[in-house]
Design brief:
Blueprint (H helix, E strand, L loop, with lengths): L6 E4 L1 H5 L9 H14 L3 E2 L2 E2 L12 H7 L10 E2 L3 H9 L4 E7 L2 H8 L3 H17 L3 E7 L12 H14 L3 E6 L6 H12 L7 E5 L6 H10 L4 E4 L19 H10 L8 H14 L7 H8 L1
Helix pairs in contact: 2-3, 2-11, 6-7, 7-8, 8-9, 10-11, 11-12
The structure holds 3-hydroxy-3-methylglutaryl-coenzyme A and magnesium ion.
The site of magnesium ion has 8 residues, from loops.
Family: Belongs to the HMG-CoA lyase family.
Catalytic activity: (3S)-3-hydroxy-3-methylglutaryl-CoA = acetoacetate + acetyl-CoA
GO molecular function, one term: hydroxymethylglutaryl-CoA lyase activity
């Protein structure tokens, strides 16, 4: 049934590769997205139209999008920080975008060079124009369970930003534990507070796995009713402006959990493990996910 379907938003090509120290070729990025499409992900976040001075890894965003094979029905959102990013995304033929801010001023200043209120003022016309152009718009909130610079983040600060992104017209709002400090009860309480303002069906959870809590947090949030979960192939990821943030929850570990719970994802687990192994080899990384390690031993 519909309530058994979890829509996984695969963020590896963006959240994963934005953080790689070594340069990743455009061809490798395209091959990664195509493999993830073939695995069956309904959403593959492809790249970012941010400032290449800030995030040089995403400077080839237009070339990446121009090179991928779009699977029918799948979405390929891209991060857009401002009007300039939207212009570039539209020129590249983008149909889905994601805007982003945070629940902490200190993080926003380092990540996007302005505080929360200023970011909301800047994003409002971007979202309005995107919605008017018929684009699907996702909104991200970072630091929902803790900030690397400020420390504790009150739930009310998260709820305030959820309301603002909803009022702007974001179709979906992803709640990001940027540095992976959250634990299950706090994650669930934060999600439930947000769901008093925006229907649960329009909320997503986005856990980095720094402290090994991501799967437990997902489980708690599934029990609270969330059905959109962000994850990254091979557990790639981290934010260049959040020191110490390690990778995202690994998609293959999430898919294993969800299928074990009897839930559907549309994702082919074997193909995904192959893709995790392949990208680990491309990036000369040791596998970060449990499943990629097992696959390596087979
Ligand atoms: P700024 O320096 O304040 O912006 O940066 P500016 O408007 O003064 O522009 C400075 C220069 O950048 C100018 O160039 C602009 O043209 C150019 P110059 O005239 O000096 O040569 N520029 C751009 N170029 C291309 N595309 C653009 C663009 N915008 C400006 N879109 C800005 C402000 C927001 C642009 C910058 O801080 C930035 O790009 N930040 C992005 C940081 C980022 O990508 N972080 C990672 C993504 S968020 C994340 O990972 C968290 C998430 O996963 C959830 C979670 O885990 O919490 C989503
Ligand atoms: Mg992230």
């Amino acid at each position: 049934s519909a309530s058994d379907f979890v829509r996984i938003v695969e963020v590896g090509p963006r959240d994963g590769l934005q953080n790689e120290a070594a340069e990743v070729s455009t061809a490798t990025k395209i091959a990664l997205i195509d493999r993830l499409s073939a695995c069956g992900f309904p959403v593959v976040e492809a790249t970012s139209f941010v400032s290449p001075r800030w995030v040089p890894q995403m400077a080839d965003a237009a070339a990446v999008l121009g090179g991928i094979a779009r699977r029918d029905g799948a979405l390929y959102p891209v991060l857009v920080p401002n009007e300039k990013g939207l212009e570039r995304a539209l020129a590249a033929g983008v149909r889905e975008i994601a805007v982003f801010t945070a629940a902490s001023d200190a993080f926003n200043r380092r990540n996007i060079n302005c505080d929360i209120d200023e970011s909301l003022r800047r994003l409002a016309p971007v979202v309005a124009r995107a919605v008017a152009d018929g684009l699907w718009v996702r909104g991200y909130i970072s630091t929902v369970l803790g900030c690397p610079y400020q420390g504790r983040v009150p739930v009310n600060d998260v709820v305030r930003v959820v309301k603002a992104l909803d009022a702007m017209g974001c179709a979906e709002i992803s709640l990001g534990d940027t540095i992976g400090v959250g634990t299950a009860k706090k994650a669930r309480a934060m999600l439930e507070a947000c769901a008093t303002e925006v229907p649960m069906a329009r909320l997503a959870v986005h856990f980095h796995d720094t402290y090994g809590q991501a799967l437990a947090n997902v489980y708690a949030c599934l029990e609270a009713g969330v059905r959109v979960v962000d994850a990254s192939v091979a557990g790639l990821g981290g934010c260049p402006y959040a020191q110490g943030a390690s990778g995202n929850l690994a998609s293959e570990d999430l898919v294993y959990q969800l299928h074990g719970l009897g839930m559907n994802t549309g994702v082919e687990l074997d193909a995904l493990c192959d893709t995790a192994r392949w990208i680990n080899a491309e990036l000369s990384r040791e596998p970060a996910s449990k499943l990629a390690r097992i696959a390596n031993e087979r």
